[in-house]
Design brief:
Oligomer: single chain
Number of helices: 5
Strand content: 15-25%
Radius of gyration: 22 Å
Length: about 140
């Protein structure tokens, strides 16, 4: 059972004011976390192993190309793994979101459903075109 200080640390973590690593260090410093697992605890990892990468998707690049009236509006190439983690915040980019919204494309949804390399989305409407490819 955590101490009162430990409960405060957990509350800060739940509110998003500190991250899990900071919470762990604080809990360890106040003595609410044991260094060694209790006797009788089986030796096993704390977290399950990473899910295997689908065949053909290791070290791939996500490329987004948007042209409007024949002119390039968006040309982005980033590692697929980083795009999936959301570290680049490309879905939040105003320009990318605006251009993809014209075609009704939700980038987060596309990223969740990528299962192969090659063209994922290729939509053309007159002089406007959106192409999302995993290379």
């Amino acid at each position: 059972m955590p101490t009162e200080e430990g409960k405060q640390v957990l509350k800060l973590l739940a509110e998003g004011k500190i991250d899990a690593d900071q919470a762990y260090r604080l809990l360890k410093a106040i003595g609410d976390v044991e260094e060694k697992p209790p006797a009788g605890t089986p030796d096993r990892p704390l977290f399950p192993p990473d899910a295997p990468i689908p065949p053909g998707l290791g070290r791939r690049t996500l490329r987004i190309l948007v042209t409007s009236a024949g002119k390039s509006k968006v040309n982005i190439a980033i590692p697929l793994g980083i795009a999936r983690m959301g570290k680049t915040k490309i879905a939040a980019s105003g320009l990318v979101r605006e251009q993809l919204a014209k075609f009704g494309i939700d980038l987060d949804d596309v990223l969740r459903h990528i299962s192969h390399s090659g063209p994922i989305v290729d939509i053309a409407d007159g002089d406007d075109r959106v192409m999302i490819v995993v290379e």
